[in-house]
Design goal:
250 residues, mainly beta, Immunoglobulin-like, 2 domains, 5-stranded antiparallel sheet, 2 helices, 18 strands, Fimbrial chaperone protein, Ig-like_fold, Pili_assmbl_chaperone_N, signal
Length: 250
């Protein structure tokens, strides 16, 4: 499948993400769900476990990840790769794959997506009259961040995937939406948003896990009521949770 046609499939799969350390479907468990790598950490390892009753074959790819015009853009690259690339798991079996490459010079973060495709199984049995000919296969997508050699170790993400950096952003609430431009060296991971009107919280909403990459501009559809957005004086990202950050209206 070409990268061009892969984008929509990835975007649909991303809707399944939740904030946890393990991602599971009916037949496959994957952990961790957020992967990072720096010169101060060991080679990243991702584990796969087949919890189904049938064998499953998987292909692992790593795509470059950028954000432009409020869209996720994925492209092929040859800097980072996984071993093995193809995995076959029997029922109850678990295996790791590891990610290799080079950390580039600099003080920023490079973003990638790990794409795990379930491959079709060869079935030599003839179809019965009532059998369905539809073969549904899953695709799993994980964020993967590589940190350049000069980055401050205090900016690296913790076990929950939230970078330690105090982010520098510009934000506004327009048309019920939250617009965020990230000027920081690392991504901004968002699982909930609160708006402050003076001393009070006037709006709060949990959202699917959303990433605003370094240098990117992303709009979050929050449906903030018109009267509320006129009174907003502050923004809280991930209130009362790991990764909480507060920003005043400029």
């Amino acid at each position: 499948m070409s990268t061009k046609y892969l984008i929509k499939a990835i975007q649909l799969c991303c809707l399944l993400f939740i904030s946890c350390r393990c991602f599971a479907s009916a037949d496959l468990e994957i952990w961790p769900v957020t992967v990072s790598w720096s010169t101060q950490t060991t080679i990243p390892t991702v584990w796969l476990r087949n919890v189904g009753k049938d064998s499953v074959s998987l292909q692992v790819r790593i795509l470059k990840w950028q954000q432009q015009n409020n869209q996720n853009i994925y492209s092929d690259q040859n800097t980072i790769y996984s071993l093995p690339t193809f995995v076959n798991l029997g029922p109850g079996q678990e295996l790791p794959f590891r990610i290799y490459g080079e950390n580039t010079n600099g003080r920023n973060e490079d973003a990638y997506r790990i794409v795990i495709d379930q491959l079709p199984q060869l079935n030599l049995k003839p179809l019965k009259l009532n059998d369905s000919a539809v073969d549904i296969r899953m695709q799993y997508v994980l964020p993967f961040f590589v940190y350049q050699k000069g980055i401050n170790k205090n900016d690296l993400p913790n076990i929950d995937g939230f970078p330690g950096e105090k982010h520098h952003i510009q934000w506004s609430v327009k048309g019920g939406n939250l617009q965020i431009q990230n000027f920081s060296k690392t991504h901004l991971k968002i699982i909930s948003v609160a708006l402050r009107c003076g001393a009070e919280i006037c709006f709060k909403k949990n959202i699917p896990v959303t990433y605003v990459l370094s240098g990117a501009n992303v709009t979050l559809p929050l449906s903030v009521p018109g009267p509320t957005q006129k009174k907003v004086t502050g923004l809280i990202i991930n209130p009362a949770q790991s990764g909480e950050e507060s920003f005043r209206k400029e």
